[in-house]
Amino acid sequence: MNTFGEKFKFTTFGESHGKALGCIVDGVPAGLKIDEEFIQAQMDKRKPGKSKFETSRKESDKVEILSGVFEGISTGTPIAMIIFNENQKSRDYSNVKDLFRPGHADFTYFHKYGLRDYRGGGRSSARETAARVAAGAIAQLLLDQLGIKVQAGICEIAGIKSEQIDFEYSANSTIFALDKDIESKQKDAISQALKEHDSVGGAVLIKASGVPIGLGEPMYHKLDGQIAAAMMGLNAVKAVEIGDGIEASRSKGSKNNDQISSKGFLSNHSGGILGGISNGDDIITKVYFKPTPSIFIEQQTVNEQNEDTNYYLKGRHDPCVAIRGSVVCQAMMALILADMVLLNMNSKMDNLKAVYN
Amino acid sequence: MNTFGEKFKFTTFGESHGKALGCIVDGVPAGLKIDEEFIQAQMDKRKPGKSKFETSRKESDKVEILSGVFEGISTGTPIAMIIFNENQKSRDYSNVKDLFRPGHADFTYFHKYGLRDYRGGGRSSARETAARVAAGAIAQLLLDQLGIKVQAGICEIAGIKSEQIDFEYSANSTIFALDKDIESKQKDAISQALKEHDSVGGAVLIKASGVPIGLGEPMYHKLDGQIAAAMMGLNAVKAVEIGDGIEASRSKGSKNNDQISSKGFLSNHSGGILGGISNGDDIITKVYFKPTPSIFIEQQTVNEQNEDTNYYLKGRHDPCVAIRGSVVCQAMMALILADMVLLNMNSKMDNLKAVYN
Amino acid sequence: MNTFGEKFKFTTFGESHGKALGCIVDGVPAGLKIDEEFIQAQMDKRKPGKSKFETSRKESDKVEILSGVFEGISTGTPIAMIIFNENQKSRDYSNVKDLFRPGHADFTYFHKYGLRDYRGGGRSSARETAARVAAGAIAQLLLDQLGIKVQAGICEIAGIKSEQIDFEYSANSTIFALDKDIESKQKDAISQALKEHDSVGGAVLIKASGVPIGLGEPMYHKLDGQIAAAMMGLNAVKAVEIGDGIEASRSKGSKNNDQISSKGFLSNHSGGILGGISNGDDIITKVYFKPTPSIFIEQQTVNEQNEDTNYYLKGRHDPCVAIRGSVVCQAMMALILADMVLLNMNSKMDNLKAVYN
Amino acid sequence: MNTFGEKFKFTTFGESHGKALGCIVDGVPAGLKIDEEFIQAQMDKRKPGKSKFETSRKESDKVEILSGVFEGISTGTPIAMIIFNENQKSRDYSNVKDLFRPGHADFTYFHKYGLRDYRGGGRSSARETAARVAAGAIAQLLLDQLGIKVQAGICEIAGIKSEQIDFEYSANSTIFALDKDIESKQKDAISQALKEHDSVGGAVLIKASGVPIGLGEPMYHKLDGQIAAAMMGLNAVKAVEIGDGIEASRSKGSKNNDQISSKGFLSNHSGGILGGISNGDDIITKVYFKPTPSIFIEQQTVNEQNEDTNYYLKGRHDPCVAIRGSVVCQAMMALILADMVLLNMNSKMDNLKAVYN
C-alpha cells in the first residue's frame, strides 16, 4: 500500500532516519524529456531549513535518477530515484524511544506493527514526502506537454486568510503566501507560536488549469475522490474542499449550479469537476493542515507499557507544516492528473483508433 | 474503475433507467451469516419516495442475492446482488436528451465518452448508490461480528446546524436528523426551498465506534485518505472533514494534540485517526453535500452542438440529497472499515502465526 | 480475486447450481457496437448438451445484458450480463454432500473456507466459464475493430494429435477438431472412454492473428505471462506452451532464433512474442487439459470427518473437458488481448498526443 | 506493471547497464527477522561468472537494504534493496545500437516505446532478475517461519533428462543438476554448444513442500495460474507444467485422479494443486527455457530503418540460461507462496476472530 496511482504510479520507500528514501515511478510513457534540473528545483522548494519558518534540520535532498531514463529521455521503464539522508544521525532519541508523542503516529504504528522505528517517526515522518515531490516533478513534466499547469500556495495560516490569490507571488514567498498583503500577519502568527513553543495550522489552495474535459474515472476513481484521498492522506491534513466546498452545502441549487453558455461555464462553484470528471474549468481544491503536533511544551502521554508519563519534546520541527506541505500538495495534484490523463486514453473507441491506425 | 476496496471489494453496475442495477461483493470471508432482512432494511432506509423531503420516484428496491451464499452463510465466493428498476419508464426525457443539465454530469460524460445515456443521468445518477447500500449492509454484518458499529445522521441542512448528536433519534427521523430540537427548522428550510422550486445542501456526521487500534494502511491507503476518497466520490459531495477538520487548522498544537493517559486519549480532536491509522477512539467524519442541482427554475445551458439554450427541468427530485446520502455515507464507512479489517490481518508475523498454527 | 484484467476487466459471479451466474465487464471503451447475437453465438458454442461428447446437462445459456449499453452501443460504463441457471435442481447430491470427489476442488475448498457449496462443485464448477465466454465475446467485438482475430480448436485428444490445423473446419466440428482426417480417431477415443466409464484429456491450440506489434507490459504483466495465467487458471489445465514450447527447450539457439528480414520474421518459433511483447506474428499457444476427474468408476476418498470411504459418482459430465474448454480458451485469449490493447495506449508520448490534440 | 504480487508485493527497477537495479518489497509483515547473509547467499547463487557454464560478466551483486528493517527486524514498511552495477561499462555496443538481435526483445521494445536503451538489452535483460532473487529471499525467510520450503534444480539440458531428483546434490552442482549421474552428459552438451558458438535450452524442476492446504485464490488468482504467470514471464521461458503436465492430458481420469485416504492423497499427479488451491501435497512445477538467443554465429536481421543486414554478436553470454534461471524460478515460487499465505488470511471468519480477539 505504498503505491499511488493506477497507470502513472509511484511507490515510495524510506524512513526519516534511514539510509535513504526514494521512489520508483512506473508508467511514465516513453519519449518524455526528463529535466533533472526541474526535478531538483521542486525538491529544493520542499527541502527543510530554508527559513526560520521551517525545521532547522539540514538536508540537501539531492535526487539521483537510477533507471528508466536513457540519453535524457524516458524509456517507458520504471524510473527509480534516490535521496540519501544526510542529517539523520544528529539526534538522540533516548527520550522518545519508549513513549508515544501526542498527535503523532507513534501510538498507532506501535500497536499495528508490534514494534516501530522510533527515530523521528520512522516511516510515518513527513520526510517521506520528499519522494512524492520527486515523482510529482516528473508528472509535471508530462502535464507540461499537454498544456496542464498545477500551482499551489498558502491561503490561510492560524485562521488568517488570504484575500488575494497570486501564485506568482507565492512562488517566491518564504511561506508560499498567496496574498502579499496578508503575508506578514501570517508570518507573525508563526513567529508568535514559535515564541510560545507552540505550533499553528494552515491551509493550501491548489489550482490546476488547462485541464482537458474528461479526466476522472467513474465510479470509484473519480477525480474529486482521488484528490480527496491524496490530500487527506498527507500527514496532518484534516479537511479537503473541492470548489466552494463547505460553502456549497450552505448555498441553494439556483446559486450553486454553474450555468453553461456556448463560451463556457458562467461560474465555477464546482471547482472544475462535475460527476467526478473535469469540465475544462480550473480545478480548485483547499487542503487544511492541523498545527504541527511537535511542540516544545510538556504533554501527558504513556509509554509502550501503557504507563502514564510526562513528555517534553527536544529536536527540530516545522512550526507550521502547511508551508512545506503546499509543495507536496502541488506534487500530489500533478500525480493525480498525470494518472487521469493516462486512464482517460481508454474512454472511447475513437481514441483507440487514433493510436492504432 | 467501478470497483471499490482492496480485499473486501465490490463492483457495481447499472443506470438510473436501465433494467437493473446491482453489485458483486468479492472478498467476504466464508462463514458469515448473511441476514437478508438486515440488508433489505438498509435498502429501505435509502429508497426514494418515503416522504415529501425525497423524490417521489417509487422504487421498492428489493434486493435479490444471486450467488455466494449457501444455506444462509457466505461461502467465500462472490456475492452478487441485483435490484430491478421498476419505475424507469415513467418519464419523457425528450427535453433533456440533447442538452446538459447545469450542475449535473451530463456535460462531462458526453465529452468524455462521446455519447451518453441521457435517461435520468444514466450511470451518473445517484441511483447507483443503491448497490453501495446493499454491499455496505454485508460489510456491517461483518463488522458486527467484531463489535464495530457505524452510524450516520444529518448534522446540518441549509446551514442550520445540529447541536445535539443523537443517533438513536436520527434513525427514526424522516430526515435522519441528529438533533430533534433543530429538526423542524431543518425541515422548514427544505420545505421553503421546495416552495421556491429550489434546493438546499446539508451535511452528514458519521461515527464508527468499537474500532480496533491499527486499521489503515500507510502510505497510500490510509484510513483517513480512504474515507475522504469514498465520501468525496459520492454525488454532490464537496467537502470532507476528519475529526475537528477545518477547525483543527485554526487551533494550536498545544490544544489540538490529543494527550494520552493509561486510560486512553484525553480528547478526540483527531477523529480517531493518527498517521492514517485508527487509534481506538471513535472515528468521526463530516461530509458536505451541495444543494441538488435539479431545480425547477429556468437555467441557461447548451446542447450537444454547443448552442445556447434555456432549460426548464421536469421530473422528480430530492430537494436535499444529503438526507438519503447519509445512508450511503454509512454504507461507505462500513465498506472501508471491513476492507481495512481484512488488510490489517497481514500487519505482523504474530497474526500469521495465529492463523496458521 | 474474481476479477481478471487491468483495464478491460471482468468480474464473475455464480455457482454451478445457484440462481444465476454472470459478470460485469468494466473498461469497455464507449462507442463499441454490442452485437448481442454474436455474444449469444459464442455462448451457444460453449453450452452443454450439444452432442454425446459433452455432458447431457441442458442449459440454454441465454445471456441478458443489464447495463452499460444504450441503443446498441457501449457507453463506457460497466456491462453486466446475467445467465440464469435452468437445470440446476435435477440432481440429488446426497451422495457427495459429505465427501470429496477425487480430482475435484471439493477437498481444497472445504479446507480453505471451512464449508462449501457441494452442489455440482459450487463455484469451482467449470460452469463459471459461461461468464468468461460472454465477456470474451465483447472482447472479440473490440478486437474486430482493430483487425485482430482469435481462433481456437482441438489439436489433441487422448494423445492423438492433429496434423493439419484448419480453424474453419474446427468451427463446425462437434469436437472442434482442427484436423478432419484425425477427428474420427479422436472421437473414437472419447467414445471408448465413455464405454469404460472413464474420461480422456486433450489439448487446445489457440491462434491470434493481426496482432499489432507492442502488446504486453513488462515486467510482471507480459503477454506470455498473462496468457499462461489465464490458461493455467482454467479448470483441468495442467500445461501451457507458447510457440514451440517444450520443443524450444530442446532446440539450439541457432535454430530456435527467429531471424528477421525487412519483410518480417523468417520463422515463428517464438509464437509471436519476444520479451513478453507481441512481435506482429501470429500468437500461438497450446493448452493441455487433464482428463475429466468425474468418472463412473469406484474411487477411494474421505469424507469431511476424514474417514475413509469408497465413492461412486452419479450425474452428467463431459468425458473430455478440453472440447468445450477450447471455447473458453478462445475467450480468455480475446480478453487478454483486449486488455493489452488498452494498456499499450500509454506506452509512448506520441500516443498521448494523438489522443489529446 | 513492474510490480508482482497482491499483498506480499515487489516492484523492480533497473537496466542491464544502468547505475543500479533493485526493488521495493512491500507488504512484509512486521516482526520478521531479516537475515542479510541469507539474502546475499541467494544473490551469490544467481550471480554471473561462477563457472564456464555462465556468462563471464563479473558482478559482485552485493545487495544493500535501504529501508524497512530496524534492528534486524522488518517493521511492516517497504523494504528497498539496491544492487549497483559494476561491470556495465566494459562493452562497446556500437554494433548493436541500431539493429535488432534475433530472439531478443530489441525489436518489440523499439516498436512499443519508439526508442530503447540498447546497452545489453536495457530493461529487457535478465539482469533484472537479480532484484527478484533479493525479494524472493525475503519471501523465503517468511515461509521458513511457517515451515514451507522451496527448492529448484535443473532437470533437463538440451533434451537430456535427469532421472533422479536430488535437491541436496543440486544445491552444490555448478549447473544445479538434480541428477549427479546425468550431470556430466548435461555439461558436455553445454560445452559442445559453446564450442559451436551456439546455445542450448533446459528445464527447471521446482518443488515446494510443507505448504498448508488452502493457498490460492479463486477464480483469477489461482495458485497454478499465478505460478504459470510468474514462470512464463521469465526471460526465455516457453512452457510451464504443473504436476504431470502434458502427460496428464494423455492419461485417463481413472489413472490421473489422486484418490484420497485418511492418511492423505494416494498419488500426486496434480502437483499439489486442486481447483487452483494447494492440497497439502508437494507443489511440483516444471519450467522450460529456450536456448539463449545470444549466439556467436552470423544471423540475418534488420536495423531500426528496417533494412536487411547480417549480424555477428560480440560479448559475454550464458550458453544455457536455464541454469541461473533455476535460482530465479525458486525465488518466484517463494514470492508467490508468500503472497498466497497473506491473501489466504482472509478466507474465513474464524481467521478474523483468531487475529482480532
Description:
The structure is a homotetramer of 357-residue chains. By secondary structure, chain A is of the alpha+beta class. Chain A has a single domain (3-356), classed as Chorismate synthase AroC (Chorismate synthase, AroC fold, 4-Layer Sandwich). Chain A is built from 10 helices and 18 strands. The first copy, chain A, has a 5-stranded antiparallel β-sheet, with helices on one face. In chain A, helix 1 (36-46) crosses helix 3 (129-145) and helix 3 packs across helix 9 (322-343). Chain A is globular. The two termini of chain A are 37 Å apart. The relative contact order of chain A is 0.17. Chains A and B meet through strand 1, helix 2, helix 6, strand 11 and helix 7 of A and strand 1, helix 2, helix 6, strand 11 and helix 7 of B. Strand 11 of chain A pairs antiparallel with strand 11 of chain B, so a sheet runs across the interface.
Shape of chain A, please? globular
Main β sheet profile of chain A: 5 strands, antiparallel
Quaternary structure classification: homotetramer
State the name of the first-level CATH class of chain A.
Alpha Beta
Name the CATH architecture of chain A. 4-Layer Sandwich
The structural class of chain A is alpha+beta
In CATH, the homologous superfamily of chain A goes by the name Chorismate synthase AroC
What level of helicity do the residues of chain A show?
A: 25-40%
> What is the total number of structural domains of chain A?
1
Give the topology string of chain A: H per helix, E per strand: EEEHEEEEHHEEHHEHEHHEEEEEEEHH
Task: Classify the beta-strand content of chain A into a percent band.
Answer: 15-25%
Number of DSSP strand runs of chain A: 18
* N-to-C span of chain A: 37 Å
The third-level CATH topology of chain A is: Chorismate synthase, AroC fold
